[in-house]
Design goal:
The complex is a heterotrimer of chains A (about 575), B (about 425) and C (about 450). With about 575 residues, chain A is of the alpha+beta class. Chain A folds into three domains: about 100 residues, Urease, subunit C, domain 1 (Roll), CATH 2.30.40; about 260 residues, Metal-dependent hydrolases (TIM Barrel, Alpha-Beta Barrel); about 100 residues, Lipocalin, CATH 2.40.128.20. Chain A is built from 18 helices and 24 strands. In chain A, strands 1, 2, 3, 4, 5, 14, 15 and 16 form an eight-stranded mixed sheet that branches. In chain A, α10 links the parallel β11 and β12. The longest helix of chain A is centred in the middle third of the chain and has 27 residues. Chain B is an alpha/beta fold and about 425 residues long. Chain B has a domain of about 290 residues: Metal-dependent hydrolases (TIM Barrel). Helix content of chain B is about 30%, strand content about 20%. Chain B has 13 helices and 16 strands. By secondary structure, chain C is α/β, with parallel strands linked by helices. In chain C, α4 packs across α5 and α4 runs parallel beside α6. The radius of gyration of chain C is 23 Å and the shape is globular. Classes of the chains: A alpha+beta (about 575), B alpha/beta (about 425), C alpha/beta (about 450). Chains in contact: A-B, A-C, B-C.
Chain lengths: ~575, ~425, ~450
């Protein structure tokens, strides 16, 4: 009953939010003409002073002398720049962050042989089940110019199947362009259950893949001549790997760091599946191998902290860290106003060299995209790890590091279209393609560009000032502390620990209850200190017969938090992240 | 004749020891004349001559010393006599079995607990003690660990039935100076977090120190009228001598920036300090020398603190500090393998310190730093007879030790390790039942 | 590219130049050293010529062409590259500790060629190490014998080609604590550990015979594939050498009994602190032993240890090696070997065998490395003094004819992969030696399980 009630509440809420978002005034036309604009048909092909006509969700006309239909809403595109809508080659757009959080290890799970779904093995899972048309991530990405996303489920080693979706629509059905086009693969291990480490994950990949290969043969043989043969009976996980084993569906394998990518490529070589390497952050040294093996590459759009110009400025403002590390200031240059009493410390040759190496390393990361361009490997971008707000900044940093604007644009349009097999319908502003269009007030590659309109499938979205967007997206009050949060502690050298944290109370008086997914014991915490958005508390627990004092300090931003767990007075610390699963009245 | 008697005694001892497997023989008391050895005095060069041990002391050093009545003569021709080595930082006797926490007595609960006395918890019968001393280590500082002021360390000699019998005349309060390094590879705190924590710790330290000074002031003023003091305050009482400079503060600090901060803090508060750990001492060796503070460094056999450091940073650190004019003492920080002190010294010697300086660092320098140079650290008349006889350089693994004296007692060269060797080298029965 | 960028690249360029020099396997002629061959005595004033990565000749007054790099080793000692039969350097994961049997996992999957610990081992004369899975499970993962080709960036290039497969077993406290105490499943006792082996072996035997029947056409449908049983079956067929973490005499005898029942005879007991108690039994079985020089007392099962272990085993004709199990110790294995002279008076050659030919035998690579012999790999360590002396400083370490460590050209910062998010390389308060201790106690359950 309670469950039903909360469901009802949820429905009510979403209905309400929809009515707020909808215009009362009906649309009068679905035909649009953007006139006298700089139309970048595709990377390297620009029509100056051109007109583009959108009709029935398609690009109806594009060119210099185009007749504007009488039912068209005309957008005077004077001096504006028009681009094909961006395509995320891989992202989690539309998957609510709370949905993917594991429910954790259920009671009585066998650590050495947990059920597949708990272990992160759900290749049968389609995103249709979790995709939310009104998830905030969709509007946020659209605002950045994205119109299509290859959305992969979140999860571990085999998270499920990805689908290509339009970043606009009234339902999952409405949005899905092509379903189950990929398998999301990674080396992510399960929390303190098998496979709990990268070596376990790799072994499990081998196990499942070869098992599926044999199962597929068994089914085939049985179909032909069942008499006298044991009836095949395989799990849905195994069955759903048949298209992968048959090389009909590629594995989009996450390989951020060089070693991850190497390991994914080794596994691919051994098992022979079709692979697209994605989330690549440190792949430049593997360019020759990617090239010779013909592996398709999708680069991560995230960059290391401190690697982009804006980051550096921010860091500087925060004030520097330990005195010894002061040297940073020297390189930052003129704007830096030192306090007069603080003498600048002379850097030793050794430290100068160290700083140079770190900068050089950062330059390598930022320059990765340019290196791929130079090696003539076409690539798309994955948005699985980047903060949406950093997309443009990071792209510009890559451009500054040598990535050409054409290649950057291709990585957002034509390349992902090709990788995803949708070149015939998306990726350029050619006649007949889907009307996925960005209209910007100047060149996209200018720092102060404003995206004015984004058309998805012919639907016009006028981009508003930031405030309004935020209201629409988030809905709930930000920074609310009370509620139930799911958390993940990234235990160094081991699998993460997950659980639930319930913060109870209001204003300045809070208590907390904390549980882990590995055992049922609940710990009550009577004193919770709240300072702004910072929440801290301490408790003790038994680990291996020892009483361990544990303290946590978390910073809450909207429905997420991050912070630090400190064990035994700081003998060990680990980062903790969390997200809200419910507010107190749910 | 005496020699024959001592052989007979030895033979009896061996048989009795076989009967009572793994029981270490008693130490012997008496007078012993070490005849004709090469005496590496550390204080006065190397000489060939005789050394008489009597009444627990080095009674005399010289040529052709007549054998006193009742004394046992030990032929040391071709052998070397060294002062016993002193380890500047161990958990010897405070820990029996590493993973069994209830055998661990060095880490008490509390952040400001200088009244926790390491000496109280030293187990005179810890299995590690004979294992240590048979390698020529005769004294060790036993150090509590844990929070900011985890307790008071004591210097002990490695023979005795009670802690008091072992006590060797030095105590120092331990301060773990606020550290801005990572605690280990598992420590994932951001640089920001570490900085914040260290700042907080620094503030706590300053506040604590203010209180210590205030307490000392009130205590001095109230010396005639103890009632003026507010009740039972053991932790503050334990700091009184540190506050007035008559007891050392052992300041554990390792990272370059932290060492600099510690030097400042020590200077500002006029603390009578000894720096311990000092892994990155070589980066600020001149500053330490200028502050005229001694250091207890080690273990020398360590990996460098940073991934970017030269592979031999820990090997060369003692030598570089020594060359900068710092008085260097070495430590193993161990409980079961304090016996590796000579090898830590050997690595320091090989990597720049030189054998002579390295030997001094584990003998006379240590005694000087601990204020017991009148009794320990060299072969000088009147000092306590802590010494050993070997067939060569004790830093070399090939070198064997033949005789060992601690507090003037002749110590059997037995430990669990030697006894197991004796029993199992030629096992009987072998394969058969 | 602007000026400062140029500067940034410069340091990297210099390092890469160095690395590229390493990569060029150059022929090397080591002149006039005292050559400790291990298998053929010590030769004064002798030269060693390495060509195409192999030892071409050993003798007096050798000469070679202009393109050969000549190393003057006068007054120095030239010995075979040191081999560590037990380490965990160069791998990103040590333990898959979630199940009592994890024979299917392979640390060879997670080799990290950027681990600075590899360079530090080279600076201690170590050219080959046995990168092992941890000791959390009765049957742990498969290990990898790696060559210290630091500078190579492809993890596969570190694997010693052709080295036999090896696997980690573990007895005693670690598997008991992790599974019995930690998860409430067998094994919680040494009795349980025996049965874990017996069950795994029996099931693998059944599995192997089911496949045999299928492959012979006796069955229509393939047996259910099991990557774990595949690996255990390979142990039973003798394809994989067992390296078993062990301490107590009783558990050592137990495993030998189990192995005897299954006809398995290739085993090296690791740590084996109480090996000295059952040395005659080990020798009779043909088992070898890889021990610490002097580690003991860090847990209860090593409380009744003796540093004379290596000597007793050696004198009982057990092939014995001294290992590190530590990124710190691996840097001075020559010194660790020297301790066998302190504790048991081994001869120089007996002591040096503990870190050369004996570990090579235990890893099944003694036809390639472990001694200076014509035709063997060009793996050489050159020392300033006799390697068993405390004053010996490694001068140069050569792997397959490539100079990988040279004290004359040894930059401070030898990292090959720089964390872009770390403003300065962090300082770690505890050295490796200490953190081993840390792991042993309270945090054993939370972290890795090593020795």
């Amino acid at each position: 009953m309670v469950k039903h009630l909360s469901l009802l509440l949820l429905l009510l809420l979403s209905a309400l939010s929809q009515s707020w978002g909808q215009d009362d005034v009906p649309d009068v036309t679905s035909t649009f003409a953007i006139t006298n604009a700089n139309i970048i048909v595709k990377p390297g092909q620009i029509i100056e002073g051109g007109t583009i006509v959108i009709k029935d969700g398609l690009i109806h006309q594009v060119g210099k002398s185009v007749t504007i239909p009488i039912d068209a809403e005309v957008i005077a595109g004077d001096s504006m720049f028009v681009y094909a809508g961006f395509i995320a080659a891989a992202s989690h757009a539309g998957i609510p962050s709370k949905e993917e959080k594991r429910q954790g290890r259920p009671e009585g799970v066998k650590v050495s042989d947990p059920p597949n779904d708990v272990a992160g093995i759900t290749p049968q899972k389609s995103i249709r089940e979790t995709l939310k048309h009104n998830d905030g991530s969709i509007a946020a990405l659209r605002k950045q110019g994205f119109t299509i996303s290859h959305t992969l489920p979140k999860g571990r080693m085999m998270a499920g199947r990805g689908s290509i979706i339009l970043l606009d629509g009234e339902s999952a059905d409405d949005m899905i362009l092509r379903e189950d086009v990929s398998l999301a693969g990674s080396l992510k291990s399960a929390p303190r259950i098998y496979p709990g480490t990268t070596i376990g994950v790799l072994a499990k990949w081998r196990q499942l893949y070869r098992q599926a290969d044999l199962a597929k043969d068994h089914e085939k043989k049985y179909k032909m001549a069942p008499s006298g043969m044991k009836r095949p009976s395989f799990s849905q996980e195994i069955k759903s790997l048949y298209p992968v084993v048959n090389q009909e569906v590629p594995v989009f394998f996450s390989g951020p760091k060089q070693m991850d990518l190497h390991r994914a490529m080794q596994l691919q070589k051994e098992l022979g599946f079709k692979m697209v390497a994605m989330d690549i952050e440190q792949g430049w040294k593997l360019i020759p191998r990617l090239k010779s093996s013909g592996t398709t590459a999708i680069l991560g759009m995230n960059l290391p902290k401190g690697a982009t110009k804006k980051d550096k400025k921010k860091d500087k403002k925060k004030g520097d860290d330990a005195k010894e590390e002061k040297g940073e200031k020297e390189d930052v240059g003129d704007e830096d106003k030192k306090k007069p009493e603080e003498k600048k410390e002379e850097l030793t040759e050794e430290k100068k060299a160290l700083k140079k190496r770190i900068k050089s390393s950062q330059a390598d990361y930022v320059g990765q995209a340019a290196a791929f361009e130079k090696a003539a490997i076409p690539f798309g971008f994955s948005l699985t790890k980047v903060k949406t707000a950093d997309i443009k900044k990071n792209l510009m940093a890559m451009v500054e590091a040598g990535l050409s604007e054409d290649a950057a644009l291709a990585a957002l349009t034509t390349n992902p279209a090709k990788i995803l097999g949708i070149s015939s319908m998306a990726g350029t502003l050619e006649k007949g393609k889907m009307a996925n269009i960005i209209v910007a007030d100047t060149s996209y590659f200018k720092e102060k560009v404003n995206i004015k309109y984004v058309f998805v499938d012919g639907h016009k979205h006028e981009m508003e000032v930031k405030k309004k967007e935020k209201k629409k997206g988030e809905g709930e009050a930000t920074g609310e502390i009370a509620g139930t949060w799911s958390y993940v502690v990234d235990v160094p050298g081991d699998s993460p620990v997950e659980g639930k944290l319930k913060l109870i109370g209001a204003d300045d008086s809070y208590t907390a209850e904390i549980t882990t997914d590995t055992d049922s014991d609940m710990i009550e915490i009577s004193e919770v200190e709240v300072d702004g958005n910072n929440v801290s508390f301490a408790f003790t627990t038994d680990i291996d017969g020892q009483t361990m004092p544990i303290s946590m300090s978390i910073d809450i931003t909207d429905d997420e938090f991050e912070g630090t767990v400190s064990i035994a007075g700081g003998m060990m610390t680990a980062p903790i992240t969390g997200s809200k699963t419910s507010t107190p009245n749910e | 004749m005496k020699i024959i008697i001592s052989y007979i005694i030895a033979a009896i001892l061996i048989t009795s020891q076989l009967a009572s497997a793994q029981q270490i023989a008693k130490t012997e008391t008496g007078s012993f004349l070490l005849r004709g050895g090469t005496l590496v005095t550390v204080s006065n060069g190397t000489i060939t001559g005789d050394l008489l041990v009597a009444d627990g002391k080095i009674k005399s050093i010289g040529e052709s010393i007549p054998l006193p009545a009742g004394a046992i003569e030990i032929d040391c021709a071709g052998k070397y006599v060294y002062p016993g080595m002193i380890d500047g930082g161990t958990k010897l006797g405070l820990q029996e079995v590493g993973s069994v926490s209830l055998t661990s007595d060095h880490n008490e609960i509390g952040d400001f607990i200088p009244h926790m006395e390491a000496l109280t918890a030293v187990n005179p019968n810890a299995v590690s003690i004979p294992v240590t001393r048979v390698n020529g280590i005769t004294s060790a500082l036993v150090v509590p660990s844990g929070g900011s002021f985890p307790g008071t360390a004591s210097l002990i000699n490695l023979v005795g039935y009670t802690p008091d019998q072992m006590y060797a005349g030095f105590k120092g309060a331990v301060l773990n100076f606020p550290a801005t390094g990572k605690r280990g590879w598992w420590d994932r705190r951001s640089a920001e977090d570490i900085k914040k924590e260290a700042e907080k710790a620094m503030k706590t330290l300053d506040d604590t120190w203010k209180k210590v000074k205030l307490y000392a002031k009130i205590n001095a003023a109230a010396s005639s009228d103890k009632k003026a003091l507010a009740g039972y305050n053991p932790s503050m009482d334990a700091m009184l001598q540190v506050a007035n400079g008559t007891r050392h503060l052992l300041v554990e600090v390792n990272k370059e920036a932290d060492i600099k901060a510690a030097l400042k803090w020590i200077e500002k508060n006029e603390v009578n300090a000894i720096l311990t750990g000092v892994s990155e001492g070589y980066r600020v060796a001149a500053d330490i020398a200028k502050a005229d503070l001694p250091v207890i460094v080690g273990p020398v056999l360590s990996i460098p603190g940073r991934q970017s450091d030269k592979y031999d940073a820990a090997y060369t650190n003692p030598g570089l500090l020594h060359k900068a004019g710092v008085k260097v003492v070495l430590r193993t920080s161990s409980y079961e393998n304090v016996r590796n002190l000579p090898y830590n010294a050997g690595f320091a010697a090989a990597y720049g310190m030189g054998t002579e300086a390295a030997l001094r660092s584990v003998t006379l320098s240590a005694a000087e730093v601990f204020g017991v140079a009148g009794q320990l650290g060299s072969l000088d008349e009147g000092k306590i007879a802590n010494l050993f006889v070997s067939d060569g350089d004790p830093f070399e693994t090939k070198t064997d030790i033949y005789h060992l004296f601690i507090s003037g007692r002749k110590v059997p060269l037995e430990s669990r390790h030697t006894l197991l060797y004796d029993e199992f080298l030629n096992r009987d029965p072998g394969l058969k039942k | 590219m602007n000026n400062s960028m140029m500067n940034h690249k410069l340091y990297t360029a210099i390092l890469l130049l160095l690395v590229s020099q390493w990569m060029m396997a150059q022929d090397v002629l080591i002149k006039n050293g005292t050559v400790i061959t291990i298998t053929d005595g010590v030769k004064e004033n002798t030269d060693v010529l390495i060509q195409n990565g192999r030892i071409k000749s050993i003798g007096e007054g050798l000469s070679a062409g202009d393109e050969v790099r000549v190393v003057d080793a006068e007054g120095m000692y030239v010995m075979p590259g040191i081999i560590d039969a037990h380490s965990h350097i160069g791998i990103d994961v040590v333990n898959e500790s979630t199940a009592p049997v994890t024979a299917e996992v392979r640390v060879g999957d997670v080799i990290n060629p950027y681990a600075v610990s590899i360079y530090r081992a080279l600076a201690g004369g170590v050219t080959t190490s046995h990168a092992m899975h941890g000791s959390a499970n009765a049957i742990g993962g498969q290990c990898e014998t790696i060559k210290h080709r630091y500078g190579e960036e492809d993890p596969e290039a570190l694997k010693m080609e052709g080295a036999p497969r090896t696997i980690k077993f573990a007895l005693g406290e670690n598997p008991m604590r992790v599974h019995g105490e930690g998860q409430g499943i067998q094994p919680k006792t040494r009795m349980g550990i025996e049965q874990v082996f017996r069950k795994a072996f029996a099931e693998a035997q059944e599995y192997a015979s089911a496949w045999k029947d299928y492959n012979a056409g006796k069955k229509q449908v393939a047996p259910a594939y099991d990557v774990r049983k595949e690996a255990v079956a390979d142990i039973l067929s003798g394809e994989i050498i067992i390296h078993c973490h062990s301490y107590r005499a009783d558990e050592i005898l137990m495993l030998m009994d189990v192995l005897e029942d299954y006809g398995v005879n290739q085993i090296c007991f690791q740590h084996v602190n109480e090996g000295f108690k059952v040395a005659p039994e080990l020798a009779a079985f043909g088992a070898s032993a890889s021990v610490f020089a002097d580690w003991w007392a860090y847990k209860f099962e090593v409380y009744y240890s003796t540093a004379y272990n290596a000597a007793i085993l050696t004198k009982n004709n057990v092939v014995t090696s001294i290992n590190s199990d530590s990124g710190e110790l691996i840097r001075h294995l020559y010194h660790e070997a020297g301790k066998s002279q302190k504790y048991g008076d081994l001869t120089d050659n007996e002591a040096l065998k503990l870190i050369t030919i004996n570990p090579a035998k235990q890893l099944g690579i003694d036809d390639r490395v472990g001694s200076l012999e014509v035709g063997k790999d060009g793996d050489v360590a050159i020392f300033s003094a006799h390697p068993l002396s405390i004053y010996a400083i490694p001068q140069m370490t050569i792997v397959d004819g490539t100079v990988r460590f040279d004290i004359q050209a040894d930059p401070i910062d030898m990292r090959l992969d720089i964390d872009p998010e770390e403003e300065m390389p962090a300082f770690y308060e505890l050295d490796a030696h200490d953190h081993h201790r840390c792991m042993e106690g309270v945090f054993e359950e939370l972290f890795m399980h090593q020795h």
